[in-house]
């Protein structure tokens, strides 16, 4: 079917799918024909022996053309096949030629091209028409195409007439004019166009690839400009190829396609220069391709709207193209030294293409004789350049992509590390907070316990005991002063594996209250401190194992704002609290705060203790205490001596009070002490002073009283005591007895200051005599 003449083959098959199918089929056929089909047998060229006659033939009354039958008349011999001389502004031309003899079965005249519309007659019979020669559209452009004019067989003795019309500057036949078998036309066209078909298809594939890459790659304009050039070249080569009519027989449509593609070529070229040659000023190139694009759109559009004819748009465009090529060449020449290999390749392909395009232009305008210009070879040069550039570009992109991937992977890894580190920090922070909370609670509980302590020693003992629990998991030690306030001896350490130095000199450690960031010893300094050996014992072990230490002094602040160093806490900053440097300060501050609070509480206990020591009252019994007695005794004995007035001293001690305590408990003992004190206070005069001497001992000072008075009052009190039954928390404690010693001035001694010692001796005697009795001191009591 494909071997039929094209018009009859292709008429009525408009579908694009089918067109594609044909295109591929043609290509396959062309490739199959590639070897061994250079010369087609049976072709006979008709390039000479033509006759011509300007103008159009008048018609006979029957409507027949007179020139078809008229004898020689005006016919003149023509050299060649087109543009006979003497046109004289006429647009109609008749050509004729006697057909040669041949053994063709179905002969046809194959003409590569003719200008512009034509009819063919053989022996008066109309055999072919291209375009309109009659009516309102007479002479209208019908497209440039090859022509297959069926001839009758045999051809010998017959004359072929061609009636031509052209408003274009050329008129006549062009290219190949041969008689051949009709069945040979298709192979002949395929043979002639196989290279063009292959190149056109390659260009279109490159354009399609560029389109796909535009959608996926970032460099859209660069790829787009190449894609546009490929598309334009591909379409132009295809549209101008004789094979295009085999795909769709629509010469005019193909001419429009060719025109648009041809006009788009410099647009793509300028675009390529703009985006592939950063050296060249972009502004100028952009203006150039925008102008060319406008022409590529407007000129074919005006032709389609019949405002102008399509052929005249070519010469004008050729002029524009020359200008554009010159403009581009100027810039390329100026920056020729700066081009990289890709750019050089593009310039080379441009040069080849431009040379071919200009040659084609010259041929088209008749400035050189008609030759078949291999426009497709220019396209081939460009395609090869594009494939090389694209391959390199692709390889470069892949490398960049790989680098980008590597970079991204590194970044992801880095981010992951950062996140993990943040999570770890968060875990650390939570752990620190939880630990701090626990430690704060433990410290608060310690401080609560300390509030109940009456002696500093007891409080310090409790503090020491709680230290490991509060400071663990950090290793640490507690030092207390020995002979000198700043010479500290190891008192306690934890854990057992930690080996702190046995001594510390803390002279350089300022009290916490006066510390500032600057005054805080650096860790290295602390290390020096911690490992210093006492000068007294250079051989002493120093096993701090080069660990840096924090040292927190436990200083008591007195009412006079003076500090008394109670000890130092030494901590190795390690463990979860201080794993990260950012927690060092926090943890150190936390410990400092805790130590400060402890120091405050201990200071308060010490103060209470001191105050209590300074008091004249006994807290338990409410009686005067020994301190008061001592001062009063000194005072009263001095008065007695000076005035020679009597003075008696009674000293008494509860019997077996230890056993009592052991039996009923300390609190019950206190109840008894309170009761005895009360009874004593009630048993003596107001001017007598009853004091608690200490423990379960009481002393009474009776100014102006003799020993008898004192004895008498004591007897009464002992009777009362014997019948008094003490109770504690509902429990009966039974009775207690007291032993008593009495001495008086001047009866017992003429030195009142000896009375206390003598009364004490008498008490000793009373105890030894069996207790629960009163013993009067004799003048020789202490001998
Ligand atoms: N409950 C209580 N006991 C005290 C107080 N002061 C001292 N004691 C106790 O009094 C006891 C005195 O014991 P000792 O000195 O052995 O005398 P004792 O048991 O009374 O024996 P003799 O004096 O020899 O009869 C000790 O157990 C002290 O703990 C106090 O304020 N309250």
Fill in the keyword field for this structure.
single chain; 783 residues; alpha+beta; Jelly Rolls; Beta-Lactamase; 4 domains; 6-stranded antiparallel β-sheet; 5-stranded antiparallel β-sheet; 22 strands; binds guanosine-5'-triphosphate
Assign a percent range to the helix content: 40-55%
Record field, number of beta strands: 22
Bound molecules: guanosine-5'-triphosphate
Which strand order do you get reading across the main beta sheet? 3-2-4-9-6-7
Distance between the termini: 163 Å
- In round numbers, the mean pLDDT is 85
Number of domains: 4
- What about the largest sheet? 6 strands, antiparallel
- The SS-based structural class is alpha+beta
Question: Could you describe the 3D structure shown?
Answer:
Keywords: Coiled coil, Membrane, Transmembrane, Transmembrane helix. By secondary structure, the chain is an alpha+beta fold. The chain has four domains: 42-191, Jelly Rolls, CATH 2.60.120; 193-382; 438-614, GAF domain (Beta-Lactamase), CATH 3.30.450.40; 626-776, Reverse transcriptase/Diguanylate cyclase domain (Alpha-Beta Plaits, 2-Layer Sandwich), CATH 3.30.70. The chain has helices spanning 6-10, 16-33, 185-216, 220-240, 244-247, 251-276, 282-304, 310-334, 341-364, 375-451, 456-471, 523-531, 581-614, 626-643, 657-664, 666-683, 707-723, 755-768, and strands spanning 44-45, 50-54, 76-78, 92-98, 107-115, 117-122, 125-130, 147-150, 159-165, 172-181, 475-481, 487-494, 503-505, 550-557, 563-572, 647-654, 689-694, 697-703, 726-728, 731-734, 738-745, 774-776. Strand 6 (117-122) and strand 7 form a beta hairpin. Helix 4 packs antiparallel against helix 10 (375-451) and helix 9 runs antiparallel to helix 10 (375-451). The chain is rod-shaped, with a radius of gyration of 65 Å. Bound molecules: guanosine-5'-triphosphate.
């Amino acid at each position: 079917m494909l071997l039929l003449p094209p018009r009859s083959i292709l008429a009525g098959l408009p579908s694009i799918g089918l067109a594609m199918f044909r295109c591929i089929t043609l290509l396959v056929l062309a490739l199959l024909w590639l070897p061994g089909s250079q010369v087609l047998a049976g072709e006979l060229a008709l390039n000479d022996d033509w006759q011509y006659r300007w103008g159009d033939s008048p018609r006979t009354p029957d409507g027949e053309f007179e020139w078809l039958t008229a004898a020689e008349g005006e016919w003149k011999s023509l050299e060649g096949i087109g543009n006979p001389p003497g046109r004289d502004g006429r647009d109609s031309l008749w050509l004729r030629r006697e057909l040669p003899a041949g053994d063709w079965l179905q002969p046809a005249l194959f003409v590569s091209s003719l200008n512009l519309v034509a009819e063919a007659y053989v022996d008066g019979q109309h055999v072919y028409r291209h375009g309109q020669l009659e009516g309102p559209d007479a002479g209208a452009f019908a497209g440039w195409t090859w022509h297959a004019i069926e001839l009758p067989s045999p051809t010998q003795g017959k004359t072929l007439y061609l009636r031509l019309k052209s408003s274009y500057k050329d008129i006549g036949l062009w290219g190949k004019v041969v008689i051949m078998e009709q069945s040979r036309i298709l192979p002949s066209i395929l043979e002639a166009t196989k290279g063009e078909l292959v190149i056109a298809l390659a260009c279109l594939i490159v354009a399609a690839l560029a389109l796909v890459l535009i959608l996926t790659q970032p460099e859209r304009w660069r790829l787009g400009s190449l894609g546009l050039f490929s598309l334009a070249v591909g379409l132009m080569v295809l549209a101008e190829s004789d094979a295009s009519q085999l795909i769709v027989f629509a010469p005019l449509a193909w001419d429009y396609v060719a025109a648009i593609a041809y006009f788009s070529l410099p647009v793509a070229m300028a675009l390529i220069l703009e985006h592939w040659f950063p050296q060249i000023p972009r502004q100028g190139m952009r203006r150039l391709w925008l102008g060319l694009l406008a022409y590529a759109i407007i000129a074919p559009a005006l032709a389609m709207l019949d405002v102008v004819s399509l052929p005249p748009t070519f010469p004008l465009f050729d002029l524009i193209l020359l200008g554009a090529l010159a403009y581009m060449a100027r810039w390329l020449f100026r920056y020729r030294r700066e081009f990289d290999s890709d750019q050089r390749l593009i310039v080379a392909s441009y040069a080849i293409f431009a040379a071919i395009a200009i040659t084609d232009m010259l041929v088209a305008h008749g400035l050189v004789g008609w030759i078949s210009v291999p426009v497709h070879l220019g396209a081939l040069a460009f395609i090869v350049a594009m494939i090389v550039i694209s391959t390199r570009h692709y390889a470069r992109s892949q490398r960049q992509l790989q680098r980008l991937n590597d970079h991204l992977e590194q970044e992801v890894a880095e981010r992951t590390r950062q996140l993990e580190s943040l999570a770890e920090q968060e875990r650390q922070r939570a752990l620190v907070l939880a630990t701090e909370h626990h430690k704060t609670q433990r410290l608060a509980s310690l401080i609560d316990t300390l509030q109940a302590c009456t002696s500093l020693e007891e409080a310090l003992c409790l503090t020491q005991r709680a230290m490991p629990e509060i400071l663990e998991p950090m290793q640490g030690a507690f030092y207390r002063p020995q002979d000198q306030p700043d010479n500290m001896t190891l008192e306690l350490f934890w854990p057992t594996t930690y080996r702190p130095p046995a001594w510390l000199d803390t002279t350089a450690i300022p009290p916490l209250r006066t510390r500032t960031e600057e005054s805080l010893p650096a860790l290295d300094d602390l290390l020096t401190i911690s490992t210093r050996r006492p000068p007294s014992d250079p051989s002493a072990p120093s096993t701090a194992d080069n660990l840096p230490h924090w040292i927190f002094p436990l200083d008591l602040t007195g009412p006079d704002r003076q500090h008394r160093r109670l000890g130092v806490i030494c901590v190795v900053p390690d463990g979860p609290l201080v794993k990260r440097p950012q927690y060092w300060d926090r943890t150190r501050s936390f410990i400092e705060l805790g130590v400060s609070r402890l120091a405050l509480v201990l200071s308060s206990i010490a103060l209470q203790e001191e105050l209590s020591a300074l008091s004249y009252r006994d807290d338990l019994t409410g009686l005067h205490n020994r301190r008061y007695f001592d001062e009063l005794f000194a005072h009263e004995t001095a008065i007695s001596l000076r005035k020679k007035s009597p003075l008696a001293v009674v000293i008494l001690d509860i019997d077996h009070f230890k056993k009592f305590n052991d039996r009923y408990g300390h609190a019950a003992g206190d109840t008894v002490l309170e009761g005895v004190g009360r009874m004593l206070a009630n048993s003596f005069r107001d001017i007598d002073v009853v004091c608690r001497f200490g423990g379960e001992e009481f002393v009474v000072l009776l100014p102006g009283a003799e020993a008898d008075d004192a004895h008498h009052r004591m007897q009464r009190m002992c009777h009362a005591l014997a019948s008094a039954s003490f109770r504690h928390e509902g429990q009966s404690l039974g009775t207690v007895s007291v032993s008593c010693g009495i001495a008086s001035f001047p009866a017992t001694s003429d030195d009142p200051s000896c009375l206390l010692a003598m009364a004490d001796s008498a008490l000793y005697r009373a105890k030894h005599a069996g207790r629960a009795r009163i013993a009067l001191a004799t003048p020789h009591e202490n001998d």
